[in-house]
Structure to design on (173 residues):
């Protein structure tokens, strides 16, 4: 079954802000910044309706020690989950539908820059964001596509765009 992508919804911003507030309360001073990332953070593009949250933390060890605080907010602890020096959490609603992802990196991580650069680049260049949205539409047009095929179909675009985005981000900082 094809992943569901939907047009941008203005309420995603508020959903992010409410969740960021709760996370900040749960994790405290270890959190330096909380960012809304992913396609739900980019106006006018198709997105899976899952809020992606990027957290810059002082210490991953302190995050590991605070896992129970995120469990109390309904998150599942996933560890690094394929990205070295990341802490990943995911949350489903009571119906079992995924609603949130949290990606946590220590301050100074190149992964922080990569995620923020990609988001900001697509916000700055709507034509490129539209190309990304059109790619998502074409990939999900096939009802037989599964999530892995969808992700693999997006990867070449993401990787090529990230290179440009990081260069742009660093030069405009």
């Amino acid at each position: 079954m094809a992943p569901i992508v939907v047009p941008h919804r203005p309420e995603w911003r508020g959903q992010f802000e409410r969740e960021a507030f709760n996370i900040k309360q749960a994790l405290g001073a270890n959190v330096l910044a909380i960012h809304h990332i992913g396609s739900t953070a980019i106006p006018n593009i198709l997105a899976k309706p899952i809020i992606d949250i990027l957290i810059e933390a002082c210490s991953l060890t302190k995050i590991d020690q605070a896992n129970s605080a995120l469990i109390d907010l309904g998150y599942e602890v996933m560890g690094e989950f394929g990205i070295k020096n990341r802490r990943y959490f995911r949350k489903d609603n009571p119906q079992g539908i995924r609603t949130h992802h949290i990606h946590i990196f220590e301050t100074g991580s190149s992964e922080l820059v990569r995620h923020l650069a990609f988001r900001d680049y697509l916000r700055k260049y709507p034509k490129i964001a539209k190309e990304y949205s059109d790619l998502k539409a074409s990939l999900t047009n096939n009802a037989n596509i599964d999530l892995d095929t969808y992700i693999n179909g997006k990867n070449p675009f993401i990787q090529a765009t990230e290179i440009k985005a990081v260069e742009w981000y660093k030069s405009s900082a």
Remarks:
- Residues 147-172 form the longest helix (26 residues).
- The chain has a mean pLDDT of 96.
- The chain has six helices and five strands.
